[in-house]
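Whether sequence alone determines local backbone shape is best considered at the level of individual chains. In the encoding step, the backbone of a single protein was reduced to a row of integers, each denoting a local shape. For completeness, the protein is quoted in full, as a sequence line and a line of structure tokens.
***
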Amino acid sequence: MSVFVNFLNVRGEIRFSSLPSDACQSCVQKCNSSAQLVQCEFSKLPRRQGKNNQEAGAVYICDDSRESLNSAKKFKEKLRIYSEVSIGIGGIRNSIREESNKKAARLIHNLASLNGHNIQEAYLVVPQEALNKDVKQVLRTIKSYIQTNVDGAAEAILKIMKNNISMKTEFSVFNKLYDIAPRLSKTSHPVHKIVMNVMHLFYQDFFSKNIDTYIEPTTERIYVDYESTHVAIYHLIENASKYICPNTKLTISFKKSGKYLNVFMDMISVRIEDAEMDKIFHDGYSGENALHQEKAGNGMGMDIILKVLELNGACLFLVPNSKMERNIVVDGGIYNHNLFVIKLPSFNTSVQR
């Protein structure tokens, strides 16, 4: 006994087929009944076949079971069940496609945006029209503009470096989060070095807001995958540079707690309302005050940062408005004290040996 199934989409393309031979497709094309007896061209034995045309495509089955051969009614019921399964599969497939397209669209949008920023930074140092005047003297022209604006060139290079690392982190998140079996290389890393490798990229951002930054010295090590942890810390510090209150201080400190090392990011930043405590870790959510200040965007959300940390057995939580009874209002923006805590697996030499 064998049941062969063939699902077609609205364009007549095969979505799924268990037909034993490509030659069987001629039976699919010829079938114009929901339950007809035929003689198989290959086995020369009787079979019952039927096709059900739907809005989403067509379902064809071919069956040689005694039940189907003896009863067209029971065969039609079987065809109906397969048709419902086809609709369900189509819905799942569409959902997967939409979700994949959404992820890919987000990646393309962010990469295009970062690339646009890089081009803009380069042309702020060397205008595009200057490069078109004398193609043979391009290097000399670029050198001349850099020499007349060394500070501006240095600032542009720093921003381009930061944007390039952002592009790299976008690819890293896409590969690690959406891979069925993401590859992680967990080893021992000095936590201070990871934080400092990120902080220097945002020097200009904090400087422009007159932010006093302090990173506590520490020799503690963590046991993580460097690339994904770097991604998470990068985007946390990027968010800090975006939401922190001007003319204040950012303090990053460290404290060992059992098997974990806690990283504290202490700052006065955009106020997070009590009702938003959990919501800020949801996909696509932006806080009320962030929206009011038009600071919300298409960057990497807290939900993605949290997922990346979870790959390393780490976590992230927030202690909002813990030190200040009153808000600070600057240029219409509402700020208060926020403490972000990253809980990372600590490296214990005696355990890892």
User: Anything to note?
Assistant: The chain is about 45% helix and 25% strand. The longest helix spans residues 72-125. The chain has a mean pLDDT of 84. Residues 184-352 form a domain with the Heat Shock Protein 90 fold (CATH 3.30.565.10).
